[in-house]
Amino acid sequence: MNHPPHPDGDSPRDLVGIGIGPSNLSLAALAHPLAELDAVFYEQRPTFDWHPGLLIDGATIQVPFLADLVTLADPASPWSFLNYLKTRERLFPFYFAERFHIHRAEYDAYCRWVAENLPGLRFHHQVDAVRFNPERDVFEVDYTQLDNDGEAEALGRTTTKNIVLGIGTEPYVPEPLKPLADAPGVPVLHAADYRDHREALLKAEHVTVIGSGQSGAEIFLDLLRNRPPGREKLHWMGRSSAFAPMEYSKLGLEHFTPDYTRYFHALTEPVRDGLVASQWQLHKAIDAGTIAAIHDELYRRTLHGGWPDTVLTPGVHVRTAGRIATTKVELHLEHLQQGTRSRLTTDAVVLATGYRERPLGRLLAALDPYLRRDSSERPRVDEQFRLVLDPSVSGAGCSIYVQNAERHTHGVGAPDLGLAAWRSATILNTLTGKEPYPLPTRTAFTTFGLEQRQPQIPPARQPRALTPLADGI
After folding, report:
1. How much is the pTM?
2. What are the backbone angles phi and psi of residue 347, rounded to the nearest 5°?
3. Which of 150, 190, 254, 461 could tie 444 with a disulfide, CB 3.0–4.6 Å?
4. 113-135: b (≥16 Cβ within 10 Å) or e
């Protein structure tokens, strides 16, 4: 099927967002009061959906409630978490609950409230391709409108001067386990699907959880609490050398400030790569409260003598894996420090192995000649979160921004919810040239580096006047 020509003549949009996760939802919420900005956001899913498989009862997000979609850029925004509570007549219960870290399910409900009430969001819209039109100096965005069954219903095209990619991450499955995870009927699943399979996992005789981060800890704790004492039959393992607590000291948290982000961006590529690998405890470890809860539960099960039937082994790598008969899985393990090997037979495996950034290649294939890359062939991203493009594109006033796809250039704070509002405000300030959201010049007590760097303020440019557009469906 060919996409129809854009029906709006010479009136490109100011901004097209691709993907509606927390990052682009934050951008859409902060863009909403900017009346002169013509923006639309596309998402192929039918509704907002934030890691539904990990909405485990009692699990909390690891940032304070102030790290909502807008507050750290605009505390007076109507799209704040506190205003969400007000509309639900829940401000007083929240006040007395004294919760600084809210439940993950509550954060999801808050984002859904924003997504259901914010205009300019187009769910059931799958973006198929993005290309640059040098004759008109605009990006062309082709999309497919989907019906309720996810089938193609209509095709459309819109043009825009700016694009922001917020396509998020996807579950990561280690290579040795991919064949089993992809095979139908095999009890090997990613943590992203945990809730859908929870009842079956509770009934399985023996369950192995792989992954020593927060999701692995939460899943192990949930299974432990719901299996009979003395018959837990749980094995929890991970590659890291310890089930380590998240770095959550006040000065340690300053790695998630704009100050550190600017410092990190100015470092050389090899230094940045080494830092990201070494800072795993800032973002891949376990909340200390969750560790305490696991120990408390294990200890409680020793009160009447004996030890719970659980094995917790850090520093373990899965070399290979295969099926035994029709219902069991055999894992071939190697201890990274001892250099020893063994086998483990289990009835089900949960892969709490995290998420990886979705590759941009398929979506931006037509733009590949315009993209500038680093020595590892990753897209270069400037300080304002723009992909570095050929001057023939950037010089025409066209930009592509990225959200949560810039860890290699902006550091561990890239996926952190606490920096979402600041990053969205930075993008909008750059795009409009008017600084609708004044941002602080200093955000940390720590001085990162000997040379002090101030935020780069892009040259101001006047956005065009608002022109109502159709979508070309």
Report:
1. 0.91
2. -95, -20
3. 254
4. bbbeebeebbbbbbbbbbebeee
